[in-house]
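My current task is to audit a protein record that another person submitted. Alongside the sequence sits a line of tokens, each denoting a local backbone shape. Where you disagree with what is written, explain briefly why. This is what I was given:
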Amino acid sequence: MRNQYLSRPDVREYLATHPDITKEEKKELLAWIKDGNTPYSNDRDVFDESDHLLDFIGAIRAEKEYCEEQWLLRQIREQWDEPDMKKRIQIPHTLYTLMVEYIQDHYDPDDRQRFMRICIGIEQKQQAEIRRNLYSAYKAETDPETRKMLRTSNLDKAGIASSWRWEEETEKSFREGNFGC
């Protein structure tokens, strides 16, 4: 029965464009075709960077690559919790910007794990910088409406749930010792 599907012209043409197909991929492809589907679509709704639907094998490989990348990211995040990764230093913003540009221009695909660690660190630094700028703008603002908007943005970026937030007037009263008693 397998030969029946392999002898279809569209399947033969498709397999000719994928000479590196593995046995597992071929088995999944044949099951997909047996269910009445074409090899040029996928059931995972996986698209490429240009928003074109990937073919069946392309979707399987993209999904596998995504899973491997997520595993690698988990490993890297776990390494950030090690004691030696908690040490912090301050550097000038211009040096930081130059480092980011250099890393982006000199990506080495053979050293993907180091690159991912650097990218995560840069992203965390950028998010911290955004939060710090929002906080500074909030503290410096004199207009109450703008101040409230900046405070809300700052708390949103920090990931603080709205149920945990105090109104600014309540916070000020609490600091001054007025507990409403």
User: Anything to note?
Assistant: The radius of gyration is 26 Å. Residues 82 and 128 are 20 Å apart (CA to CA). The mean pLDDT is 77. Residues 112-140 form the longest helix (29 residues).
